[in-house]
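User: I'm writing a short methods note and want a consistent example. For Cell wall-active antibiotics response protein LiaF, I'll paste the sequence; you return only the structure tokens, no commentary, since I'll be parsing the reply automatically.
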Amino acid sequence: MFKHFTTKNYNWILIIGVILLLIEFVFSFGGAIIPTIISGFFVYVGWKSFNQLWGKIVFWISLISMIFSILSLMAVRFIIFAAIVIFVMKFYESTKKAVKIAPVLPGTSNHEPLSRMEPLFDHTFFDDQFTEETPYQWRDVNIHGLMGDRMIDLSNTVIPNDTAVISIRHGLGNIEILVPYEVEISFHHSTVFGNVRVFHENHEKIFNKSIFYQTAQYDTAATRVKIITSLFSGDIEVKRI
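Assistant:
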């Protein structure tokens, strides 16, 4: 929808945002900029001591304070308003375009036969989700959520001779994926805050990073699993079972 909006227009929005930021800093004695910087500092302090109770308290209070401070900036409000206006304009333009109708030739049909399958998981914002403890038929996983834990056990299913896909986009919570020893994996994870453990590899207190691992025989294996996950804050563990 935004592909016809030129880079020049985006640059002007960015320039105006920077000007508003400078105006707020100069004429409002820092405005919400100084509280944002202070909150960001305490977010960092809390994250460095996140394994302790006081660190968790400082981290979450400072994070909430920083978010509200950022939203109080004139520049941020302007960019949000500009994005909404651009979206509405482009949506209105798209409604005026003619609908493309493809002709149907004799002996052909636009209706390809499909079989509807029930997914392993439904999208949920706050509940924990786990695979069944009894054997189940494998289906690719593609879910997102806000809060809660996710656990996928691949030992109770049969992975087809193909690439199985697990895609999870989540806000706050932990993810655990159990993989049989004979299955090769590709693991790509991105997070803002959290810990990552993939088999024997361990990464602690990650901040805004992506991690990619792949087993040695993944490219040539007949049975393999591609894991793509993203978390705002939480731990993920991939282990053999």
